[in-house]
Amino acid sequence: MHGAVPAVCEEISKACHDVGHGPGEAGTCHVLGHKGDAAVCEKEHHRCLALCEELAKKAPVSPEGADHSSH
């Protein structure tokens, strides 16, 4: 059974969620946030948040109500 994810890791996974799918540093940050290793998250916290927040500013925003289904 999985324990609770440390808050520092959850913060990384949330910050990198929308920009961290796929290869690259943002993807690495997203995955490490979900793994929940507090020591790694503490070490990478500042770098990952800065990286993912910067990428999120540049990411295109989907229009509200957009249909993302694959019909």
| Number of separate strands | 0
Span from first to last CA? 37 Å
Parts with pLDDT < 50 across at least 5 consecutive residues: 64-71
Main beta-sheet annotation: none
Please tell me the overall pLDDT. 83
Tell me the radius of gyration: 14 Å
Overall, the morphology is: elongated
Please work out how many helical segments DSSP would assign: 3
- Look at the helices and sheets and give the structural class: mainly alpha
The succession of helices and strands, N to C, reads HHH
Helix content, binned percent? 55-70%
Give the strand content: under 5%
In words, what does this structure look like?
The chain is an all-alpha fold. 59% of the residues lie in helices and 0% in strands. The chain has helices spanning 7-16, 25-35, 38-58. Helix 1 (7-16) packs parallel to helix 3. 24% of the residues are buried.
Summarize the model shown.
The protein is 59% helix and 0% strand. The chain is mainly α and 71 residues long.
List keywords for this structure.
elongated, mainly alpha, 71 residues
Topology (SSEs and partners):
Layout: H1 7-16, H2 25-35, H3 38-58
Helix pairs in contact: 1-2, 1-3, 2-3
